[in-house]
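Repro:
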Amino acid sequence: MDVECIVVGAGVVGLAIGRALARSGREVLVLEGDTFTLTAADLASYNTAAEAWIADAGAYTVRVGASSLDIKQASTFQVPKEVIVEKSRRLLAPQGPITEMSAAK
């Protein structure tokens, strides 16, 4: 998985842009300042089968530039093994059997 967009020095407008890009299905990283640290949570995506947020093992590339067409630096790093960031708790799961409703007669 590659991060497709990085918004640096975000502020309120940058956060709104980052959210809009994320809603469109892009992998977005929003940064404040000149340096940053990526955690497993930053790389995680939701795995429905595992019911968890998981950072997959593999190579990740971060590209930084003025735009996606003007990349200034790139760096690749490895995540050696899958990391489970957060396991879902089935809070809204039904507590008993579900019976279907029928129209009144």
